[in-house]
Amino acid sequence: MGSDNAQVGGVGGTGGTGGVGGAGGASGLLGGDGGNGGDGGKGGTGGTSGAGAAGANGADGTRTDSADTARGESGGNGANGVTGGAGGNGGNGGAAGSARSPGGHNGTMGAGGDGGNGGHGGNGGDGGDGGNGIHLVAGLTGDGGNGGDGGHAGAGGAGGHGGTGSSTGKTGDTGTITGTGGNGGNGGNGGDGGDRDGDVLTGFRGDGGRGGNGGNGAIGGAGGNGGTGGNAGHIDSGAGFDGGAGGYGGNGGNGGHGTIADGAAGNGGNGGNGGKGDYGEDGTGTAGGNGGSGGNGGDAGHSSLGDGAAGTGGNGGKGGDGGDGQVDGFTGGNGGNGGSGGLGGHSGAGDGAAGLGGAGGNGGNGGDGNWGNPGGYGGNGGSGGPGSTGGVGGVGGNGGNGGGAAFTGAAGAGGPGGAGGNGGTSIGQGIAGGAGGAGGNGGIGGPGYALGGDGGFGGHGGNGGNGGDAALGNGGTGGSGGNGGSGGTGSIGSGGTGGTGGTGGTGGKGSNGISTKLGGAGGLGQAGSPSTVGSGGGSGGSGGSGGPGGVPSP
């Protein structure tokens, strides 16, 4: 135990070892589960200015072989670190025991032990990885163990990462779960989803595990990134089963708010990418699996009342690609959708920079069809996050490309682009409104034998934010296809100029001048898209000239 004399705090106790799983019966019955590891002891309190000691690591689980099968022990939990000290890492889960039986029947495989949880402390310990299931030709395999959760951090410390979910054995029929990132000064990253194989006996699809969510940031800390979704494992049979789906990407954690003074706010964590879908198995012909959706970006923290900068929203994760259809003719899997960008944080009352919206994730590509069957659709691009308090809106994600097709099959259409985020309206004196984010590009249509797939629609641009009510408060510029924002009202100077419209958009209105000053000019109307007329210019403020109209495009 620490004292006020800056001595080091006591070390946390080690987690207890899990009990050994019971042996299976002679006739091939399921063996008993191993006991869970004991929790680590709480660390002693550190001295006033002393550095806390690290908690001990949890013990690894052991592999057990018995007459039949036994579950691998769970790894012990990492001990809790003392105040200021790092938490110990959780032990890894033990591998499953092999299945043997003198009674002539193969028992069901034991599952891999779970990873222990990381200890708490100055920095949270990482969760242990789950143990792998083991392949046995004549029987089913056990599950891969779950990843342990990352430990929570003390003030200002980083949260531990979630452990990775382990793969199942070759013919395992269930998937694995990942641990989540611990909360802390910087949120821990979520663990990745485990890959998962299907079951050759039943045709059960092996979907990838979902990525863990990133932890939230504490004061001023960044949110953790979401874990990547696991890929679908292939069913190696010949019976013609559908391909498994990719796992979803985890969501990014939210950024922490700034301090009361001028501390900057934390950024939102990025969403994890979706896993890839598996291709269909040869034989009777099967569809490819769909790609997993990308996780959403975390929201940024707000800055304080002072001049600290606001955080940027996290980016959305990319959607996973769809799997291809196989020989005897089935459709390609669809691409996963991109995740949405996170919100930009609000800036403070001072001169701190406004938060930017996060970019939307790109959609996954569609898988190819085969033998006259259609290709998969491209995934949708994620929407850009809106800017805040004059911040720029995030860019929309691009749509995924469509899958191709052979012979008479229809090619897949490209996915639509995501919408750009709106620019934030300024609340500061004389600060321009934020520009709207550009819309994402539509995906390319897949190649076809007779007819190619349609291209995806482009995303709409975000609208520009309004300028602040001050002498030079200009309206934000509209994104592609968006409308320009209005200029701010002048106080002792001229009115702000209206924002320029995006392609095909209307120019913003110029604001009114005060006293003898001129009103702001109307924004320029941009050219229309092909076969459309140009948009009108924005109207001028009092005493200001109107903006010119856009010309028609050829």
TrEMBL record:
Task: State where composition is biased (Basic and acidic residues).
Answer: 62-71
Composition bias (Low complexity) maps to 167-177
Question: Spans of biased composition, class Gly residues?
Answer: 9-55, 73-96, 104-133, 141-166, 178-192, 205-215, 276-300, 308-346, 472-511, 534-554
In this chain, the stretch annotated as Disordered covers 1-215, 276-346, 472-554
Write the protein's name.
PE family protein
